[in-house]
Amino acid sequence: MQQQGQAPLQIEHYIIGKTLGVGAFGKVKLAKHNITNTQVAIKIINKRKMKNSRMGAKIRREIRLLRYFNHPNVIKLYEVLDTPGDIFVVMEYAERGELFDLIAQRGKLPEGEARNFFLQILSGVEYCHNNLVAHRDLKPENILITHNYVVKIADFGLSNLMKDGKYLKTSCGSPNYAAPEVISGKTYCGSDADVWSCGVILYALLAGFLPFDEETTQALFKKIKSADYTIPSSFSPQVRDLINRMLTPDPLKRIKFHEIHLHPYMRSTQVPFYLQIPFKLDEGRRQINEDVFEKLMQLQTVNFRGMTQTQIQKSIRKREDKSFVVIYDLLLGQLGIESSTPMTLHNLTMHDLIFNPQIPQIEGQSFNNCLLNEIQKPQPYDYGKELPKDIMAIVYPFQARQIVNAIYTCLEKFNTVIKIKSPDYKLKCYHKNLIKMTKYNSSMELFNEFQKEVEETGSKNDLASLTFKDDGKKPKVKENKYSAKEIIFNIQIYKMPTNNNDHMIDFQLCRGHPVVFMDFCNKVIALLNQHFNQI
């Protein structure tokens, strides 16, 4: 405790105050920025303790993600200060503490108030998913509330990147909020697991207690896996339906985030604009708030390092590690303005989010077919860059088992070896081209071979529309670099978010030339189309 008359502890521009909490690696302190007078929370992490613990990776992961995240409902990281003994993580301060404390103090919340909190949680989590991050530890203890009741999702230490066609394996998070597939030790989709956790949180907001809460872990897991819970009679029919859809044990049948937006429970009230449209991390250029920027330029104590206003604005847009960028963010926070305004619709439109009685109801839930197109149109591609792994996908209106059997039949005709078969409809395949064994020295040489084949056969092939860069120089010979000899790829089948049997087949290249892979996928898809047309 600081003695009377003793100078307060200060680290750079931050005057350290009272302790907010104590963790395994150090303390969380309240602090004040001495230029803007903004209150912040500083997590002080002891380097020695972090080094001697496996949790170092958890801390580094959280810092790395929060550096780039920028959303009204995700906790803001302002900067990280490094000293010989400690790391000071400067973060946004949420005055009202954890959502857990609010539920503990007040018990169940009125449906309107609970929906307001849930909308904000949904917005923050969906922002993470849009930027390919699964939180994996969503619970009221990791959701903070500001003085004006704005939700801030925190603690990204267990989060992980989501990759198309790849599942997560680690069983993590709090058991009471974990999805059945997570506690079962199976591979799982991070976004589906987060939907389950959000369903548990919504239940807790409305009931004041958890749907799954047993004395022993064994009994708890049994109830979670069978979705054995009771919905209080006070819940409205709409919220009953939504919770049942979110707490569905089968992740393929569980409601998806974009479907939650269309549920009658979510559409029965007007919500803030920023909650209706998901943010995207890198969409457009960062917008500068002119009033805040003018206030920043008027501060006499800020070191702008001799930069012009244009250079300063550029640094702010690029999120450069400079003190005046932090001060700009702190000033925005004071005014309650978010520091990033660019947004993207990602399939959702304002028209879709406003309740429309003309849209037909399907089992009590509104769906708009325009939202069900999960496959984005291919963008113009610069061949000088690395090709994305996922470059082929197609949807069929058949059961997953029917599609798998058809894939087996088609791949057998191409002498393709299926190396791994998993119960979640994922195949790892190896294909060796026994006919064409030519080795190509450059991408241009390979493309010319395909172009020649197209011209000779007169067939229209999508490969001919690819754009290749050629600087006219003789390519460097690298044996087998672009060999058409073999490819290794994954096939994953996904359930589409519809009430029928639509499933998507996703082809993912693991090794081999992408053009050869695309050509092979076209042939497989043509054979699949022929097979299904006969049904």
TrEMBL record:
Protein kinase domain location: 14-266
Domain named KA1: residues: 480-530
DNA damage as UniProt keyword: no
Family annotation (CDD domains): STKc_AMPK_alpha
SMART domains: S_TKc
Keywords recorded for this protein, A-Z: ATP-binding, Kinase, Nucleotide-binding, Serine/threonine-protein kinase, Transferase
Gene Ontology process terms (BP): intracellular signal transduction
GO terms of molecular function: ATP binding; protein serine/threonine kinase activity
This protein's GO CC annotations: cytoplasm
PROSITE patterns linked: KA1, PROTEIN_KINASE_ATP, PROTEIN_KINASE_DOM, PROTEIN_KINASE_ST
Record: residues binding ATP: K43
Domain of life: Eukaryota
Protein name, as recorded: Non-specific serine/threonine protein kinase
Organism lineage: Eukaryota, Sar, Alveolata, Ciliophora, Intramacronucleata
